Amino acid sequence: MAHESLYAVVMAGGAGTRFWPASRRARPKQLLPITGEQPMITQTIERLEGLVDLERVLVVTSEELAPAIREAVPQLLPENLILEPFGRNTAPCIALAAFEIERRDPNSVQIVLPADHVISPTDRFLSALDAAVHEARAGGRLVTLGVRPTHPATGYGYIRGGEKRGVQAGWEVREVSSFVEKPDAARAKEFLESGDYFWNAGIFVWETRTILAALRAHATGIYDALAGIDEPAELVRAYERVESSPIDVAVMERATNVSVVPVDFEWNDVGSWPSLADVTPADSSGNHQSGGGRLIARDARDCIVYGDEGSLIALVGVEDLVVVQSGNSVLVCPRERAQEVKAIVSQLENEAPDLL
Amino acid sequence: MAHESLYAVVMAGGAGTRFWPASRRARPKQLLPITGEQPMITQTIERLEGLVDLERVLVVTSEELAPAIREAVPQLLPENLILEPFGRNTAPCIALAAFEIERRDPNSVQIVLPADHVISPTDRFLSALDAAVHEARAGGRLVTLGVRPTHPATGYGYIRGGEKRGVQAGWEVREVSSFVEKPDAARAKEFLESGDYFWNAGIFVWETRTILAALRAHATGIYDALAGIDEPAELVRAYERVESSPIDVAVMERATNVSVVPVDFEWNDVGSWPSLADVTPADSSGNHQSGGGRLIARDARDCIVYGDEGSLIALVGVEDLVVVQSGNSVLVCPRERAQEVKAIVSQLENEAPDLL
């Protein structure tokens, strides 16, 4: 199934804090075995096997994260690790990768995807990507995968599907009518019932020439800043002046040649500790454990537990807690208050940045 | 105030598990900074300063704990670390120390005390010990300190005071009428109201000749096993056959020459995690922290927190929990269920003894 001109761009520059204390500046979520036994980026790259040859899998990340990425994905070709001087959201990241791939193969097609999502089963995912590749090739389209919602989620952006464009490799393809911000609960319920709205998974497929043309048209500043860069010092200067912008805002919402492939595989962006309940198995008491440590739960129920490899977390008589051990840091909070991790991180930024 | 013939015997062989995961086989409670910034044994030995010269402070412990003890109390003279091959409760420990001190000074007086209690203020404690030394010298007595109860505690053994014997160095001294096992709540209340019952703090003062005579009379097996031992191999054989017995049962309950000095300083044997609430200060939200780590408490109340030096424990929106970090182990349980730590330890003994 692997196409000779098919590239993958794995975006791995994120530095999220919602998984503190497991995630740190130098070891964000994509480098953690939050689900399964491998770091999420390792799972992401292995998932592409059979569709994209390893020699055409590129990873974009920051210089700070590069050593840990190399360690997590030793099979990655050294020249395929693209380094950003610092993060500027997804539009500059995608532009940087597009220019690099254009140099290698101007007739290429790209799959662009985040490094840290849970997707299953793999064969359905690859099949949908294959359809998206066909759609991208067929009409010079910017193609997104839109996940059919299974519940009225308020934590995701949505893609509104428009006219049906046809069928590619067995998958229906539709025009994109609009991109929609995270809705409130009432709108999310309407979205779910209408059948025309899909979760924006941040997974894109396009020809290199198509995305570059779209960047030039809709994100001219980013395009101009990153075009024709030869050396690292230039790149730093470009990143210093380039706008920080997500590709959705910089390009997708403005372009008119956008298609969506509605998909129904399991997808989760694993945005916070409580989301682990959706993507990891529970023991007989409803406790979800990941990270590679050992859990002893004595009359403990419905907890979400993460401990480093080699760690031991003992819970007695507690329920509905998030309990995280990483290095010599520990977090204990109720599941419904896990978003307050951000406040802890803010406090540490001020008081003890070495602990981040 | 220091007497030339006054020795201290610090019993530091205990291997308690109630402070798991902070306490491990190789690092039991007396070696931990459970209260204050120093290990408890360090505080215990420093507390004796001015009453007992360091050259006459002996520590009895197991071979396994010896290196950690030397590290915690570097000022201890090497020849003053008395090693038991393994633990046999307090009676053999006290006999072993008594024979050793007899060799050094047959006319000596000894203060025998546990390594891991909280006592304050020091001057009252030393003053009471001074009185006990006078009492021990005056009449060949086995003297105990009995702590006046401040609440109807069911977790301590009690000493029932009898006839008043007199006053020593400003402290009343009474005959001991009996030693009483841990009472139920109703009896504990009676004890508190009667004024004649005192907590058995396990602190004893006696002449060396007096305790040896008492051991010979009441614990003949122990006395005979440990008399005249010259070399380590003999000691191992003696410990292999000697009865494991607490001094209270082996001697104190049987002897008739027992005195008690009722004392009113703060004393706590710090028997479990919840007892830290009694011996460490609380922050404005009622959280008690020890161990040397950092605590970030966000809307967290009345928790008992212990973390290693350099650690960080973040609590959000929880209350009445015990949260302990030590190395890469973590315990989370409600304060009122902290006694179940024993069950965790038992499970680990079977399943993962390397984690103890």
Summarize the helices and strands and which ones pair or pack.
The structure is a homodimer of 356-residue chains.
Chain A lengths: L5 E6 L28 H8 L9 E6 L3 H7 L8 E4 L5 H15 L4 E6 L3 E3 L1 H18 L2 E6 L10 E11 L2 E10 L4 H10 L2 E11 H11 L1 H7 L5 H10 L5 H6 L5 E6 L2 E3 L7 H4 L8 E3 L3 E5 L5 E4 L4 E5 L4 E6 L2 E6 L6 H11 L5
Parallel strand pairs in A: 1-2, 1-4, 2-3, 6-10, 12-14, 13-15, 14-16
Antiparallel strand pairs in A: 4-9, 5-11, 6-9, 7-8, 7-9, 8-10, 16-17
Helix pairs in contact in A: 3-6, 6-7
Q: What report would you give on this structure?
A:
2 copies of one chain form a homodimer. With 356 residues, chain A is of the alpha/beta class. The first copy, chain A, folds into 2 domains: 6-268, Spore Coat Polysaccharide Biosynthesis Protein SpsA, Chain A; 273-355, no CATH class. Chain A is 30% helix and 28% strand. Chain A contains 11 helices and 17 strands. Chain A has a 5-stranded mixed β-barrel with strand order 6-9-7-8-10. A 4-stranded mixed sheet of chain A has the order 12-14-16-17, with no helix packed on it. In chain A, strand 7 and strand 8 form a beta hairpin. In chain A, helix 6 (208-218) crosses helix 7. The longest helix of chain A has 18 residues, at 122-139. Chain A is globular. Chain A starts with 5 loop residues before the first strand and ends in a 5-residue tail after the last helix. The A-B interface holds A 21, 293-294, 296, 298, 307-308, 310-318, 321, 323, 325, 327-334, 337, 340-341, 343-344, 347-348, 352, 355 and B 21, 293-294, 296, 298, 307-308, 310-318, 321, 323, 325, 327-334, 337, 340-341, 343-344, 347-348, 352, 355.
